[in-house]
Fold this protein.
Amino acid sequence: MTDLDYLKLTLELAADGASLVSPNPLVGSIVVNNGQVVGRGYYRFDDLKHAEVWALEEAGPRALGATVYTNLEPCCHRGPEKRTPPCVDALIKAGVARVVASMVDPNPSVNGCGFEELLRAGIAVTVGGHEREAKRLNEKYVSFVANGRPFVHLKLACSLDGRIATQTGVSKWITSEESRAASQALRHEYDAILAGIKTILKDDPLLSDRTGLPRHRPLGRVVLDGALRIPLESRLVRTARELPVMVFTARPTLTLADDEWANRRVRLEALGVEVVEIASIDGQLDLRAVLAKLASRRMISLIVEGGSEVAASFLNDRLVDKVTFFYAPKIIGGREAVPAVGGRGIGDLSEALNLTDVEVVRRGPDWEVTGYPAKERAEVGDG
């Protein structure tokens, strides 16, 4: 096997940590001695050991003189939580001969210093194999480090003609069970999910991760609700003590409205809902303020699922880093049917949002289309 083959194995190992590492990156590591894999490990936040340490412990004395492969530069710091010692110390102590990594860690606290310390200790370093795949695997982490806000993934399910509901508001179910299962798998990868108040009032969703797979922390449920209209009897409010709910709102200007708003806020908070007051711009909640608040909680990724106007707002503010549309082979039609993306729209095709790196996957009778906004239109970091 070649270096690239071994690095591919680290990427597969790292992926096993999905939803178990945030706000840290996905990392896998293997130790190879005389052509034999003698140690494997991948990172999980709650286990207090990094991937390289797990792999070295499994290798034991066979790590001496071995080559260690990892998809991300070994850390040279303890990080903000001060939970784990630097991985470079463990590598040096184990006496490994060489470290091969896919990419430099963009975190300013690392960003090359791990490799420098290894080189000073006489350990050979090779960097760059499967770098594109490694960056894609850790796109949420890379984007968070670069932009200081959560990686935003817009996900919509619609008919072939781009409708998410009929003219009477019926939307269950446009897409197939296979698409809905894939949608749940996407939710599992993210720290938080967001929907607008119209979706809450119409569908009363739970916005939960129903995969049954383990998570390092629960999926945060976020609602945009400028007038604080979320019903006290909604499923979100009724389960707020079990799974976190954040409702972003803006204080009204009229005294009478303000009194009612304040009363509803007290009642929601008594039921376990976190109400966050932010500014509004031209009557719309400031989405950058929403993302800043989530970032302050070290939530590095957000999936946006509803509805039409919310999708338009995130796209218009150039805050979308990734897009996934599930298309069902159905034509709904109708001028009053709800489009996947609302808003004012564009006046010229030159203003259209172009997607790059587009992938199409079949989901039962449906198609899952995923792409990344072209860099000239979006602040997407390395995505």
